[in-house]
Structures are given as C-alpha cells and as structure tokens.
C-alpha cells in the first residue's frame, strides 16, 4: 500500500466536498459574480470560478487514482495560494476560534499536498 493513500483519500474528499456542493447550490456562480467579478476579474469571474472548482474535481480523481500527482498538486497549490492572497490573508490565520475565514486551512492543505507529491522529501532525483 502506498504510504500516501490516506492523505490522498482525505484531500480528495476535501476537494470534492468543497467543489461539488457549490455546483448544485449556485455557490460557484455566486463566487464568480459576487466576488471574482467585483475584485477585477470581470467578465471572467464565473468562468474562473468554474475552472477552479473543476480543477479541484480533476485533482481529487487524480489523487484517488494515484496518477499525475505532481501536476494535480501544483495546480491545486496554485489555487490555494491565490485563495490565501485574495480571500483568506485579510482575515488572518484562524479559520475558527481566534478568527474567521483565515488561511490556516489552506496552509495545511498545501503542506499535505507537498507531502503527497514528495513522499521521500525534496531529494534531487524527486524534483
């Protein structure tokens, strides 16, 4: 069994639940129209929002299949970093408790994705 299996399944569940529900409750369209378009991505906010969420679904499937892990990881990490820059950093560190909507969750997902992508560390032959 691959040492990253539990992490891959966990991140896949998180990516799927974070994406799929928004596909059915208008959350993705709202994020595109009411947030992304308003901060300067108009008229592409909705398309960008859908691209982000579909990239999460594709990444989740790839993580479950243990295929193209680094590609899935890099794309997802880029999305998470942009989420920190555009949404979460102004809210601080904490998601709950010491604050609300902060960046700690994205930070943890980035570190877990790096652990999945580089299970033996950053050795020269892994890069």
Automatic annotation (TrEMBL):
<dbReference type="InterPro" id="IPR032808">
    <property type="entry name" value="DoxX"/>
</dbReference>
<keyword id="KW-0472">Membrane</keyword>
<feature type="transmembrane region" description="Helical">
    <location>
        <begin position="105"/>
        <end position="122"/>
    </location>
</feature>
<dbReference type="InterPro" id="IPR051907">
    <property type="entry name" value="DoxX-like_oxidoreductase"/>
</dbReference>
<keyword id="KW-1003">Cell membrane</keyword>
<feature type="transmembrane region" description="Helical">
    <location>
        <begin position="5"/>
        <end position="24"/>
    </location>
</feature>
<keyword id="KW-1133">Transmembrane helix</keyword>
<feature type="transmembrane region" description="Helical">
    <location>
        <begin position="71"/>
        <end position="90"/>
    </location>
</feature>
<dbReference type="Pfam" id="PF07681">
    <property type="entry name" value="DoxX"/>
</dbReference>
<keyword id="KW-0812">Transmembrane</keyword>
<protein>
    <submittedName>
        <fullName>DoxX family protein</fullName>
    </submittedName>
</protein>
<comment type="similarity">
    <text>Belongs to the DoxX family.</text>
</comment>
<feature type="transmembrane region" description="Helical">
    <location>
        <begin position="44"/>
        <end position="64"/>
    </location>
</feature>
């Amino acid at each position: 069994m691959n040492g990253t299996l539990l992490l891959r399944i966990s991140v896949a569940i998180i990516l799927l639940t974070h994406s799929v529900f928004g596909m059915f409750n208008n959350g993705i369209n709202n994020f595109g129209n009411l947030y992304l378009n308003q901060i300067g991505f108009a008229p592409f906010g909705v398309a960008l929002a859908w691209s982000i969420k579909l990239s999460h679904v594709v990444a989740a499937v790839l993580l479950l299949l243990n295929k193209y892990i680094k590609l899935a990881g890099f794309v997802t990490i880029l999305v998470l970093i942009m989420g920190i820059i555009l949404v979460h950093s102004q809210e601080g560190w904490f998601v709950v408790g010491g604050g609300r909507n902060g960046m700690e969750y994205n930070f943890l997902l980035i570190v877990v994705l790096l652990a999945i992508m580089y299970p033996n560390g950053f050795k020269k032959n892994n890069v």
